[in-house]
Amino acid sequence: MKKVLAMLLAMCMVFALCACGQTEADAPETVEGGAELVSEWGLTPFEERQTLRVGFFTGSTLSYPFLWADKLGVWDALNIDVEIICFTGGPAMMEANSEWDMASCGLGGLANGMKGYKNLTIVDITDYEENNAIFARPDSPIAKDPTNPEVWKGAECVYATGTTIQAVLAMYLQSIGLTLNDIVSTNMDNANALTGFNGGTGDILGVWQAIALAAEDAGFVRISDAGKLGFKMPTGTFAQNELLENNMQLAATAAAVFHLTAEWVYASEENAAQAAEWYYDHCEEEGFLCTEDVAKRSIEWYRCPTVDEYIELFTKTSPDDAGLYTERDLLQAEKDILVGIDFFISEGKYTAQDRVDFLDNNRISNELALAVKDMLGR
Q1: Sheet of 156-159, strand order
Q2: Residue 293's pLDDT band (cuts 50, 70, 90)
Q3: Is 154 left (phi over 0), alpha (psi -120 to 50) or beta?
Q4: Model confidence over 195-230: pLDDT tens digits?
Q5: Is 252 helix (H, G, I), strand (E, B) or coil?
Q6: With contact defined as beta carbons under 8 Å apart, do 97 and 117 qualify?
Q7: Which of 232-236, 269-273, 299-303, 325-329 has the lowest mean pLDDT?
Q8: DSSP letters along 209-238, please?
């Protein structure tokens, strides 16, 4: 009898501790708030519990509406369990595509996925990155005279090769009459590039988003960036073809929530501040270099399309700007992504035939956007 009483007492203590650990910001209020947003947005919860596995780009705002919607209680209110699988690079995300149903990445990852994985389709554009930047040391000849091609020749540039930062670097070099062949490229992923540069490696640093802001705070001189160069850098979301075929409602709900959550962030300074706090907390949890100020500025740089803009990107059509593809008019989303693809082709990363194949095989599809349009009555 004493053993039974002891066990009951222990169980009561466990339940008490769990209750004490729950704050006002936890599940009850969050779920209630999520239900209000779901109703406001005109979404219908699923009758049966759904599971969505999301490939998530840690430290890049292009993925974060998935997380913010979770913090708001929206997924739970919709009867969806979202499993977030974190990555720090597009190619690795593509290679591990069996682990996720939908995943967001930069333009380099989008090109990689279209080329190598026929089971994936681009269904969304989630950002137009402007904060892809190149930096020099403040006391360097390049910082003092950045438009002088002579001081760039033979310079070691540290950046993630095969990504959009390579396109930014190459475009800047082109503007001063040089090419990537005139410099020495050292391949490092986004976070490690800054670490290496801080340690003395390289003459030029190429990084993006939060890491670019951290480089700025470290005192390095911003030479240029995608925004200054006028180079559209769309990021996007892949969906597994199996998901689109078997559960379009779940995929469409996920896309709608993504853009509606981004609109929620834009709606007020208070919402933006809350999103920045959640962004910072997640970076801390994942060991990603960030500060509270960098988190705030990262949100300010974010350029996610609204729901209506998303639908327009995937419904508006016009001829190929380059005049190379004449089989049909192209979606605006296709044209925006092709800006980067064409640059990669010019650098020998992809071929003209790859470009034709991407379009012939509809690797960028408006099927999901049309489902979202219908779902929301837009």
Answers
A1: 184-187, 156-159, 204-208, 132-136, 221-225
A2: very high
A3: left
A4: 999 999 999 999 998 999 999 999 999 999 999 999
A5: helix
A6: yes
A7: 232-236
A8: HHHHHHHHHTT-EEEEEHHHHT---EEEEE
Q: Nearest 5°: phi and psi at 122?
A: -75, 125
H helices, E strands: number in the chain = 20, 12
pLDDT of res. 118: 97
Contact of 375 with 253, CB cutoff 8 Å: yes
Alpha-carbon span 234 to 247, nearest angstrom: 26
DSSP letter assigned to residue 162: T
User: Side-chain half-sphere of 368: how many Cα atoms within 13 Å?
Assistant: 37
Residue 268 neighbours by CB under 8 Å, 6+ apart = none
Q: Which tokens go with 30? A: 């969050």
Looking at residue 367, its pLDDT comes to 98
Q: Which residues are registered as beta bridge partners of 239? A: 102, 121
Residues pairing with 84 in the sheet = 54
Backbone angles phi, psi at 239, to 5 degrees: -125, 145
Answer yes or no: pTM beyond 0.90: no
Give exposure, 65-97, as e/b (b: 16+ Cβ within 10 Å).
bbbbbbbbbbbbbbebebebebbbbbbebbeeb
Mean pLDDT across the chain, nearest whole number?
91
Q: Cα(71)–Cα(89) distance, rounded to whole angstroms?
A: 24
Say whether 57 sits in a helix, a strand or coil. Answer: strand
